[in-house]
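EI: anyone free to look at a 98-residue chain?
SC: sure, send it
EI:
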Amino acid sequence: MPHATATVNGKLIAEADSWETVEGNIYFPPSSMDQSILTESDTTATCPWKGKASYYDVTVDGQEVKNAGWYYPQPKEKAENIKDHVAFDKSKVTIKSD
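SC: here you go
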């Protein structure tokens, strides 16, 4: 069975047996994440086909990692499968899948 994890400084922040993969990024479903460590960021970005992305800062053991993850609260039609799923910046969060 496939399995994916996201960790920051060795602490598990997301874990899923099913997820969406888009453009090489694993999008974790909302239920697979530790919501208590996520804080909404003021950062946004726009993708021509996915829509407007919002960002999260992640706080682990008192250390804040700015803009560590992003999600699409209102994606365009072609990206509906990733609505509210969170992908993480691979330079800030360790992502593993098998």
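EI: The mean pLDDT is 97.
SC: 👍
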